[in-house]
Amino acid sequence: MSLKCGIVGLPNVGKSTLFNCLSNAKAQAANFPFCTIEPNIGVITVPDERLAKLEVIVKPERVVPTTVEIVDIAGLVKGASKGEGLGNKFLANIRETDAILHVLRCFDDNNVIHVDGSVNPVRDKEIIDTELQLKDLESVEKKLDRSQKLIKTGDKDAAKTVEVLSVYKKHLESGQSARSVPVDAENRIYAADLQLLTEKPVMYVCNVDVASVNTGNKYVDAVKVAVKNENAQVIIIAAAMEAEIAELESYDERKMFLEDAGLAEPGVNKLIKTAYYLLSLQTYFTAGVKEVRAWTIKKGMKAPQAAGVIHTDFEKGFIKADVIKLKDFLELGSESACRDAGKLAMEGKEYVVEDGDVMHFKFNV
Question: Is it the case that residue 333 has pLDDT exceeding 50?
Fold first, then answer.
């Protein structure tokens, strides 16, 4: 299961700097709007200290972490929903992502021009929100119009679709995002095909100066107040400092840098972990001499579905799963030792996979 996060924000808020920190790809950051003309796509490995512990014990030929795809979407501007600044193309890029990382400028720097002339992250947020909401409203109205015509043909689902989409329309017209629309989960299916932009989970990334990375500042405080009812995540990152950390070659150098800054881990690690939480994702492991590997699944997945993440044949022909809790595996040191100690469980199709499970699947196709 691949995870794709889209980085959005107004021009010159630190998006491309953050992207460079996160990704193996390198965007050419420049100090003017639309410096990123095509969305840059990069891949980052998900930080997970448990993999390193498994590697020490198993000593595999290779270790494969799970990954996140990062898409740096060019700076949106007011009017993007109507095509301003190549807006339609960029909005389409956002539609293909699983979650939105909304970067907000929360630092003062006279050398970095702000597209609207002053630093105001709440205003910036509202500009992006409005453009995404307007685009969603356009999508809802088009389907609503089609569904109203279908009612006359006797289509059974059309009336319910009109009822649900009318709620979405009113909500979006009031300046609110689709993720907070007062519609039950089972009825959201009537809008699911629209892939609404404001339905996607969002994380607000407050890009601060180095001095504010541990404490935040007045701009961060304003953002937290503005989003308190959105059920969204807010994290603080100093993108300029993260860029310095990313340039350091060795683990010891990075560790020393972080200690000097009073940080336990790089901000980008925190960002990826928060993205997992935002999307209700978790990890299970497969561990053998050939390979130790992390696999990403949705929380609540049962064993056959989790097996299907490796290969669809695993799910189709699922027989059972051997499951060892990570704590037991690390303490006892091997699958055989866990089996001997009664710590290996044979689970069937109804087993709900837990975060950190070490699993081996048996299947027959």
Answer: yes
